[in-house]
C-alpha cells in the first residue's frame, strides 16, 4: 500500500484518518514528523496513487495509476472514459477510506490534464473534491 494510514477514534467517537506527511518536516512542538489527517491525508494518498507508474512499487505491481500511457492521447470520449476508469480502479484498489462520486477531466491550455475527483470519506458523508494537474512530458 502506498499510504501509511492509521485510523484512530476521536473523542466524539468518529474515525480520524492520519498519514505521515511525506514532506518529512518536523512538528515544531515535539520534533516528530508531521501528520496529515482526514481530507489532507486522502489528497496525499490520491496524489501518490495516481502519479505512481504501474509496476513502480516493488512487490506490488497492481499499485499505480498507469495514467502516463493515456496522457498523450487526444482527450476524446473514448480516452476520457479510459482515464476515468483507470483513476477509479486505482483509487478503489489503493484507497479503502473513500467512495468515489465523480471524476471530471479537462484539457488545459498548456497541454496538461486537469483532474477533479469528487468523493466522500467513509467516516464523513459530506462530499469533498480534490484537483490535480498532470503534465504531459516525455
Which key phrases capture this entry?
138 residues; alpha+beta; Nuclear Transport Factor 2, Chain: A; three-stranded antiparallel sheet; 6 strands
Would you give an account of this structure?
By secondary structure, the chain is of the alpha+beta class. The protein has a single domain (6-135), classed as Nuclear Transport Factor 2, Chain: A, CATH 3.10.450.40. Helix content is 22%, strand content 33%. It is built from 2 helices and 6 strands, in the order E-E-E-H-H-E-E-E. The chain has helices spanning 39-51, 77-94, and strands spanning 6-9, 15-20, 35-37, 98-107, 112-121, 124-135. It has a 3-stranded antiparallel beta sheet with strand order 1-2-3, with helices on one face. The chain has a 3-stranded antiparallel beta sheet with strand order 4-5-6, covered by helices on one side. The two termini are 27 Å apart.
Strand content: 25-35%
List the secondary-structure elements in sequence, H or E: EEEHHEEE
What name is given to the CATH topology? Nuclear Transport Factor 2, Chain: A
How many beta-strand elements? 6
Shape: globular
CATH class, please?
Answer: Alpha Beta
Can you tell me the CATH architecture?
Roll
Rounded to the nearest angstrom, the distance between the terminal CA atoms is: 27 Å
List the strand order in the largest sheet: 1-2-3
Helix content: 10-25%
The DSSP helix count reads: 2
Major sheet summary line? 3 strands, antiparallel
Number of domains: 1
Gyration radius, to the nearest Å? Answer: 16 Å
**Could you report the average pLDDT, rounded to the nearest whole number?**
77
Q: Low-confidence runs (pLDDT<50, min 5 residues)?
A: 1-13
Structural class: alpha+beta
Amino acid at each position: 500500500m502506498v499510504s501509511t494510514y492509521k485510523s484512530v477514534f476521536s473523542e466524539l467517537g468518529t474515525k480520524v484518518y492520519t498519514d505521515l506527511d511525506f514532506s518529512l518536516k518536523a512538528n515544531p512542538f515535539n520534533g516528530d514528523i508531521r501528520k496529515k489527517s482526514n481530507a489532507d491525508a486522502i489528497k496525499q494518498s490520491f496524489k501518490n496513487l495516481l502519479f505512481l507508474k504501474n509496476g513502480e512499487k516493488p512487490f506490488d505491481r497492481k499499485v499505480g495509476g498507469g495514467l502516463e500511457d493515456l496522457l498523450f492521447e487526444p482527450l476524446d470520449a473514448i480516452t476520457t472514459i479510459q482515464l476515468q476508469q483507470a483513476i477509479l480502479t486505482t483509487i478503489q484498489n489503493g484507497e479503502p477510506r473513500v467512495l468515489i462520486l465523480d471524476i471530471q477531466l479537462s484539457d488545459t491550455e498548456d497541454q496538461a490534464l486537469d483532474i477533479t475527483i469528487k468523493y466522500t470519506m467513509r467516516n464523513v458523508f459530506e462530499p469533498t473534491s480534490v484537483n490535480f494537474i498532470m503534465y504531459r512530458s516525455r
